[in-house]
Specification:
CATH class of the largest domain in chain A: Alpha Beta
Distance between the termini of chain A: 43 Å
Radius of gyration of chain B: 21 Å
Number of helices of chain A: 7
Order of helices and strands of chain A: HHEEEEEEEEEEEHEHEHEEHEHEEEEE
Mean pLDDT of chain B: 87
Largest interface: A-B, 58 and 57 residues
Low-confidence stretches of chain B: 1-40
Number of domains of chain B: 2
CATH superfamily of the largest domain in chain A: Metallo-dependent phosphatases
Low-confidence stretches of chain A: none
Structural class of chain B: alpha+beta
CATH topology of the largest domain in chain A: Purple Acid Phosphatase, chain A, domain 2
Helix content of chain B: 10-25%
Number of helices of chain B: 5
CATH superfamily of the largest domain in chain B: monomeric porin ompg
Number of strands of chain A: 21
Strand order of the largest sheet of chain A: 1-2-5-10-7-8
Structural class of chain A: alpha/beta
Oligomer: heterodimer
Strand content of chain B: 35-45%
CATH topology of the largest domain in chain B: Porin
Chain lengths: 351, 364
């Protein structure tokens, strides 16, 4: 039976195609009297009801089109937001309701019937200046204790958000996602992530429904961030086309590329990489030509610093998953100081 | 590489031929049937054979030899089970340290042991299906021609493109050394590949193009390859060293006559050139296959190839994606004394179909 399954899988050379198409539904919702569209699919619409929008942010800046049939009072909740995120509706700032946790931004606003442009962002989102983020991957079986990693991250001065390279769960099960949601409440800053191969042990839709797209792109303080779904050890041509567009858009910006599986394993004999070296090289050629400044990967539960196609690269799988034995590297995260086109990467040990 | 080489050499030396028939030019002596013995092959009825095939394909995945056992080839069943046991042991010996350590680089030197074990497990399974189906009645080995030229058309279908390619290659055997060269180009001149091969035959019959009683061989190969891909904006230079062996299975059991297993492993270094930088890397080579001699007409082989740097890449094998190579099948068929056809299908990240015609030179 396993062999039959293997042959069936072999027949499919684009296992990520349907996932890429499914992602496109993220950020859109419509009910009888309201319609919402989040630009770039950068937030999940967890709820759209009479007078209430509940979003899960996949990026620090959200541009939203909200169209209403009738005027009314609306509560807009943006979860996984920066602590200083503000809402601006049609050019008018709206006060954030105090009292929620630092990553839950709640706003109440009276809206007229018709189309409205909303932006949820920190006030310095467009200011080009140095800023700090954290990167991590591969939590998996360490979900029950990942709050220890988050406590360390909370203590990093000035960190704005966490970027993650996937494998937040071991098997992509609902109870694991529930636990991860609870653990995220211990983190003081937002957590933006792509998926990893372990999320594909369950339906990818579970990931999309909670955290949004796995392949997405955003800008923050002049730096571009591109996340790509490589959960099945390759990039679907649809995603590659998106990446081409994002690379072109960010040609003159500092650019960080994040994905779960490294295109090429620096230990070539191991093959902990894309299933096709040709596809891997093609992606790296594009990233090099697109002047990407830093590539971040997970998947291999260790820490490796290397270069691919001349681009500085890190494999950082220190989120707590069963660590590689023998290399002396345990739980860790990367602290990245963005200073223009130069990123200073340091390692923060958790244990 | 070291491990698999040792295993292959040990296999070749330890498995004494059931009869002293190595290199015999008459593959099927008078008075013997296709099973290589004076008595008939197992004379299982049609329904019994069909049941054996069904069992070997399904249950045989877990219990090696069940197909052989059902058709009455009990000794073959036991020996296939033994090969599987050895394969499992080898796979565990190689795979456990890699798995437990999470891929700690020094443990990766055990990968050939893992591949050898996987090869033994799979080829024993395929061989059992072959015995159940009565394939062992079929034929004898034939060596390569002293020199040959091949023209092949290839069709590549990968997630990003479809391409038609043409390959022209040739090789010649000089004593124990075989020199080979080939060039390949696609219809739009976007893909260009050139290869040079030098093979040294440590063991096995020299290339006469004729039939031999035993096609077992052990070869060391060194190869060089250059590849330009204008569409991908990548150029590759590869150098590799590989040891490969073929073992005719009649050396293990008469009922397996007419079939063989083949394994190879090696290492390569690669230089990938980009627009204004390059990467240097290493490649693990490894493959295994099981095949059948088709009378005096050629041979058919199923194989697994572990390398990911080919045009085919690795299978999108669900949870194992990234760690698994490609599967394939090939058929070499003699059209007449001078010409042979070559048909091959490889399935990995891409599908690659090859249809070639080979001229066999130097035949006496």
């Amino acid at each position: 039976m396993k062999t039959l399954v293997l042959f069936a899988l072999a027949a499919c050379t684009r296992p990520g195609e349907q996932r890429a198409l499914d992602e496109l539904a993220v950020g859109h919702a419509e009910i009888e009297f309201a319609k919402i569209e989040v630009s770039g699919g950068l937030a999940v619409v967890r709820e759209l009801a009479d007078g209430r929008v509940d979003l899960w942010s996949g990026a620090p800046v959200l541009d939203i089109q909200l169209t209403l049939r009738d005027a009314g009072d609306w509560t807009i909740i943006a979860r996984n937001s920066l602590s200083d995120a503000q809402l601006v509706v049609d050019g008018t700032p709206v006060m954030r309701i105090p009292g929620d946790s630092s990553t839950i931004a709640t706003f109440q606003v009276a809206l007229t019937a018709g189309a409205h442009t909303l932006r949820i962002a920190p006030p310095d989102a467009e200011v080009v200046e140095p800023f700090r983020i954290v990167a991590m991957a591969d939590i998996q079986t360490a979900l029950p204790i990942v709050h220890q990693v988050f406590e360390k991250i909370n203590a990093v001065p000035g960190a704005r958000f966490v970027t993650a390279m996937g494998d937040i769960t071991e098997r992509g099960q609902i109870d694991e996602y529930d636990l991860f949601d609870r653990q995220l409440t211990t983190l003081d800053i937002p957590f933006y992530t792509t998926l990893g191969n372990h999320e594909l042990w369950g339906p990818a839709q579970r990931f999309y429904d909670r955290y949004g797209r796995a392949s997405f792109h955003f800008d923050f303080k002049g730096t571009a961030f591109t996340f790509a779904d490589t959960g099945d050890a390759g990039i679907d041509p649809i995603v590659e086309e998106w990446i081409d567009g994002w690379l072109a858009r960010a040609a003159d910006q500092p650019h960080i590329f994040l994905t779960h599986i490294p295109p090429i394993d620096p230990v070539g004999l191991r093959y902990g990489a894309f299933r096709s070296n040709r596809d891997a090289r093609r992606l790296l050629a594009r990233l090099a030509e697109g002047r990407v400044d830093l590539t971040l990967y997970g998947h291999i539960h260790t820490l490796v610093e290397f270069e691919n196609a001349g681009i500085p690269a890190f494999i950082s799988g220190g989120g707590g998953a069963e660590p590689m034995r023998g290399d002396g590297i345990d739980r860790h995260v990367l602290v990245i100081d963005n200073d223009g086109p130069v990123q200073h990467v340091s390692v923060l040990d958790v244990d | 590489m070291r491990w698999s080489s040792l295993c292959l050499v040990a296999s070749l030396l330890a498995t004494q031929p059931v009869r002293a028939e190595s290199h015999r030019l008459d593959p099927q002596p008078a008075g013997l049937d296709g099973c290589g013995r004076a008595t008939k092959c197992s004379d299982a009825s049609g329904p019994r054979r069909a049941a054996a095939v069904a069992l070997s394909v399904t249950t045989g995945l877990l219990v090696r030899g069940v197909g052989s056992y059902v058709v009455g080839e009990k000794r073959a069943a036991k020996r296939l089970a033994l090969i599987s046991g050895l394969g499992l042991g080898s796979a565990l010996a190689g795979g456990l340290p890699i798995g437990i350590s999470g891929g700690y680089p020094p443990t990766m030197t055990l990968t050939p042991l893992l591949l050898f074990g996987a090869g033994a497990l799979f080829t024993a399974w395929w061989a059992d299906i072959g015995v159940a189906a009565g394939i062992s009645r079929v034929g004898a080995a034939r060596t390569q021609a002293p020199w040959s030229l091949e023209l092949a058309m290839l069709y590549l279908s990968d997630p990003y493109r479809q391409a038609g390619l043409m390959r022209l290659g040739g090789n010649v055997e000089l004593g124990r050394v075989r020199l080979g060269a080939s060039g390949m180009i696609d219809a739009e001149n976007e893909l260009r590949t050139g290869e040079l091969d030098v093979r040294f035959r440590i063991y096995g019959a020299p290339a006469t193009g004729g039939a031999v009683g035993d096609g077992s061989r052990l070869i060391v190969r060194t190869g060089f390859r250059g590849h330009d891909d204008d569409g991908d904006h990548v150029s590759l230079l590869t150098a590799e060293l590989e040891v490969s062996g073929r073992l005719d299975l009649h050396r293990i059991e008469r009922a397996l006559r007419g079939t063989f297993i083949q394994m190879s492993t090696g290492i390569g270094v690669e230089r990938a050139g980009f627009i204004d930088d390059h990467d240097n890397g290493s490649i693990l080579l490894g493959s295994f296959g099981w095949g059948v001699y088709l009378g005096k007409r050629g041979e058919l082989q199923l194989f697994y190839d572990h390398r990911r740097d080919s045009m085919v890449g690795g299978l999108s094998a669900g949870r194992a994606a990234g760690f698994v190579g490609s599967l394939g099948g090939s058929l070499d068929w003699l059209l007449d004394r001078r010409f042979a056809a070559h048909l091959q299908l490889e399935i990995g990240n891409a599908w690659l179909t090859t249809l070639g015609v080979r001229y066999r030179g130097g035949m006496k």
